[in-house]
Write a structure and sequence with these properties.
The complex is a heterotrimer of chains A (170), B (97) and C (294). With 170 residues, chain A is mostly helical. Chain A has helices at 10-142, 148-169. Chain A has one domain (16-165). The two termini of chain B are 13 Å apart. Helices cover 90% and strands 0% of the residues of chain B. The model of chain B has no long low-confidence stretch (mean pLDDT 89). Chain C has one domain. In chain C, strands 1-2 form a two-stranded antiparallel ribbon. In chain C, helix 2 crosses helix 4 and helix 3 (92-112) crosses helix 4. Chain C is globular and about 90 Å long. Classes of the chains: A mainly alpha (170), B mainly alpha (97), C mainly alpha (294). Chains in contact: A-B, A-C, B-C. Chains A and C meet through helix 1 of A and strand 2, helix 2, helix 3, helix 4 and helix 5 of C.
Chain lengths: 170, 97, 294
């Protein structure tokens, strides 16, 4: 038994209408809802990953700045230390130089003083000799005894003059 | 006499169905025009091929409607009308006789 | 990749059975109940049994049964596609499900606008039900879409939706739309309004049925020709029926079936979004919110 090619039946129409609604509900609840939820989840995960990456990048940048600061400070520290060391060395070398100079000066002075003393001694000895010689010479020449004291004063003054001349020259 | 009447009914139904399908000419010409224009449009702007094709198919479907009405009428005339007509005929003859 | 446990595989197999079994059931039912064909016969759906009901009896026919087969198979398909769906795993079926959802959503958004984005599942339902119903001919079953009642049901649902969205602009606006150029045109407008679902139903039905009619006629003609040309012995076997109906089937079943599904969905989108008075609706909503505020 078959239907006619065209036959209208209200209940059949209603059944097919309900079938379409059923398919609509199935697609909505099963396919679209699940896929949309999955897509939303994926989007959220993606957003989270991006946020994490941004965070990591910001951290890295912060770290970089900190490191740069540290390196800067290290550089300045090194500079400071170098400068200090330089200054120290300069001071020390100055001090050593000064000390050496002083010592040399002292030695020079001593040597000078010694030389002076020596010369004085020599002068005195020469004086004495000269006085002796001249006294004897004059005794012989004059034949008489000269009062040593008088002559000594005379000759002393004479030798002094010579000595001064010597001093001025030497 | 009744046989002759039934024969006339059947023949006229078949003739009517055939004549109804003359309406197939209209959609044929219309769709041909639509496709020709679509081809021109694609030739002018090949980048719009997808849009043009979609719109053309839509237009063809709408233009086809009259032809399908004719088809439905023809089907009615072939499958439903003869039985109905013969029923009416026999019932009137029965009531007369 | 996700660990495929035996449980997962078992559920998969069950879902595939859920898709395949209804179709097998339909084929078996067809073989068991179909009487031997007597020549060229173009008829409607076969009636399995009739439930007496008030106003009009309900005949449970092939079209109903095949529609339910499609419904169950589609449910199985949906469950199969979304089974084991996860954010990280990328299976082929998940790609397919995502592709369907995105394509349909984009199509609805492009054709109907942002307001109607929720129409995605409905359009997908029309596409799926219509296409799979028409494609039932590929396995030799009666296509439910060649029954006017089935398509009329869908068209009436679409008509209800069109009217519902037209009424969103207010009843007065709806009434006024019938007297568009002049009130004299009211009957014409009413007819054109009713012609919308009728033409939609007849378009789909006519296309599928014309395919069936032409296929039947060509098959019968080929049988006749082979009987005439190949003599009394070889003519008994319809050799000419081997290749030519396949080409027709390719056009009428595959191409036309899918195209009609697409056109039905497209027309639904255009009619529903075209009938929606967006400006009037916006005005009304604004007025209502103002009233609520005051």
């Amino acid at each position: 038994m078959t239907l006619e090619v065209i036959s209208v039946n209200i209940w059949q129409i209603l059944i097919s209408l309900i079938n379409l609604l059923l398919i609509f509900l199935i697609l909505k609840k099963v396919l679209f809802k699940r896929v949309k939820k999955m897509l939303a989840d994926r989007q959220a995960a993606l957003d989270k990953q991006y946020a994490d990456a941004d965070e990591a990048k910001r951290n890295a940048l912060e770290n970089q700045v900190a490191w740069e600061e540290k390196i800067q400070s290290a550089h300045s520290e090194a500079d400071r230390i170098m400068k200090e060391a330089n200054v120290n060395a300069m001071q020390r070398s100055d001090a050593i130089l000064a000390e050496t100079k002083e010592r040399a000066d002292a030695m020079m002075r001593q040597a000078e003083a010694e030389a002076k003393l020596e010369r004085k001694k020599a002068t005195a000895a020469m004086q004495h000799e000269i006085v002796e010689v001249s006294t004897q010479l004059s005794e012989k020449m004059l034949g008489r005894e000269i009062r040593t004291e008088d002559h000594r004063a005379l000759i002393d003054s004479f030798i002094d003059e010579i000595g001064e001349d010597n001093d001025a020259n030497g | 006499m009744l046989e002759l009447a039934i024969g006339i009914i059947l023949g006229c139904c078949a003739l009517g169905a055939g004549m109804a399908m003359i309406a197939g000419i209209g959609p044929g010409i219309g769709e041909g025009n639509a496709v020709a224009k679509a081809c021109e449009a694609i030739g002018r702007q090949p980048e719009c091929k997808g849009d043009v094709t979609t719109t053309m198919l839509m237009g063809c479907a709408v233009a086809e409607t009259t032809g399908l009405y004719a088809l439905v009428i023809a089907i009615l005339l072939i499958f439903l009308a003869p039985a109905q007509m013969v029923n009416i005929l026999t019932s009137t003859i029965g009531s007369m006789g | 990749m996700q660990e495929k446990t035996s449980r997962f595989r078992a559920v998969d197999a069950l879902l595939i059975l859920m898709i395949v079994l209804p179709i097998l059931f339909g084929i078996v039912l067809q073989i068991a109940t179909k009487p031997p064909s007597e020549g060229i016969a173009i008829s409607g759906a076969r009636i399995f049994f009739t439930i007496p009901f008030f106003f009009q009896d309900i005949p449970i026919t092939e079209s109903q049964v095949n529609s339910w087969i499609v419904v169950v198979a589609l449910l199985g398909l949906c469950l199969y596609l979304t089974h084991g769906i996860a954010t990280k795993t990328k299976t082929r079926r998940q790609h397919f499900a995502e592709m369907i959802v995105e394509k349909v959503t984009n199509m609805v958004r492009g054709n109907m606008g942002e307001y109607f984005t929720g129409f995605g599942p409905f359009i997908a339902a029309i596409l799926g039900l219509s296409a799979f119903s028409s494609l039932m001919t590929l396995v030799g079953l009666y296509p439910p879409t060649s029954d006017i009642n089935v398509v009329a049901g869908w068209a009436i649902l679409v008509f209800i939706l069109i009217t519902y969205y037209k009424l969103k602009g207010g009843i007065l606006h709806y009434m006024k739309s019938y007297c568009e150029p002049v009130p004299l045109f009211a009957p014409m407008n009413l007819v054109s309004e009713i012609a919308t679902p009728v033409s939609m139903a007849f378009r789909h039905y006519g296309n599928v049925l014309s395919g069936t009619v032409i296929s039947t006629l060509v098959a019968a003609a080929l049988q006749g020709i082979s009987a005439m040309t190949l003599g009394w012995f070889w003519g008994q076997i319809p050799f000419l029926q081997i290749g030519i109906p396949a080409v027709l089937s390719l056009y009428f079943d595959l191409f036309s079936g899918c195209l009609q599904a697409f056109i039905f969905a497209m027309l639904t989108m255009l009619y529903v979004s075209g009938g929606f008075p967006a400006e009037q609706y916006e005005k009304r909503r604004l007025r209502r919110s103002q009233k609520k505020a005051s």
